Amino acid sequence: xxxxxxxxxxxxxxxxxxxxxxxxxxxxxxxxxxVTSIINPLIGLFFNADSLDTALVLTVPTLGGxxxxxxxxxxxxxxxxxxxxxxxxxxxxxxxxxxxxAAAEAKKDAPAEEELPSEQExxxxxxxxxxxxxxxxx
Length: 138
Hints:
A hairpin with a 5-residue loop joins β1 (57-61) and β2 (67-71). α2 packs across α3 (72-109). The N and C termini lie far apart (84 Å). It contains 4 helices and 2 strands; from the N terminus they run ααββαα. 71% of the residues lie in helices and 7% in strands.
């Protein structure tokens, strides 16, 4: 039972997945900081708000006399985060991998170079040619 678990853990897919999760978490932190440091101040210029979370908040009165708020800016912020992560993943990981796979396929499908005859084969061909050109003795 423990050997099966060890085999499962040591399988390449599990290790790759663990690395992907760790890198993904670190990358998410970078994207979040970029949105907080760059995109949110730009949004603040246009919407007079500190961030997307406080921009475009629609407050609607409820039937009970209170109010309900719709944070449209927060939704837009989540969409911007997603698009930023998706763009970087595509352009940094997916696109280069597709090019690498296409190049590998093209190399695999390319006709193999014709192998040159060995030194011994060349000497045998020369011998055969000389024998054919030598006058026949009767």
